[in-house]
Write a structure and sequence with these properties.
This protein is mainly alpha-helical and 149 residues long. It has one domain. The protein is built from seven helices and no strands. Helix 1 (31-45) packs antiparallel against helix 5 and helix 2 (47-61) crosses helix 4 (76-90). The protein is globular.
Length: 149
């Protein structure tokens, strides 16, 4: 569930002194970061439904490997409880902000509009169950890949 952060590029000035640091872009210039924060807020509101759906899909595809066996051995409630512990760490403000801030730098420009549309669709879902199903469906290819960033 961890996301790899990209390293910032250091701009070097010409002719000696380094150019002054540019101020960070305004939130409107970082639409994925803004929507990511909204997504995490909705996850928190809908934590029970979101984690249940996330674990359901992870067990279905056995990713990470062994989670299906854990589910069979320990029961779904125990697996969800462990997932909640990880999620609580990953969704702390500093971790969440680092993940969200990196998106606008990492996502290719050609994918931004489609990701914003997907995110908006999920955020517009009325119930937590609908939001969870939508959000986890959007995350499915990432889950199946086993990419742990």
């Amino acid at each position: 569930m961890r996301t790899l952060l990209c390293l910032p590029l250091i701009a070097l000035g010409c002719g000696g002194a380094a150019a002054p640091a540019a101020p960070p872009p305004a939130p409107a210039a970082r639409p994925l970061a803004v929507q990511c924060e909204q997504h995490y807020a909705r996850e928190r509101t809908c934590a029970d439904a979101y984690l249940a759906e996330l674990v359901r899909v992870r067990v279905e595809v056995d990713m990470p490997p062994g989670i299906a066996a854990e589910d069979a051995r320990d029961g779904r409630d125990a697996v969800i409880a462990r997932a909640r512990t990880d999620w609580e760490v990953d969704s702390q403000p500093a971790a969440r902000t680092a993940i969200c801030d990196a998106l606008d730098d990492q996502v290719p420009a050609a994918r931004v509009d489609s990701l914003l549309a997907q995110g908006a669709r999920c955020l517009a879902m009325a119930s937590c169950d609908e939001f969870a199903a939508c959000a986890v469906a959007d995350e499915r290819s990432y889950i199946v890949s086993g990419d742990q960033h």
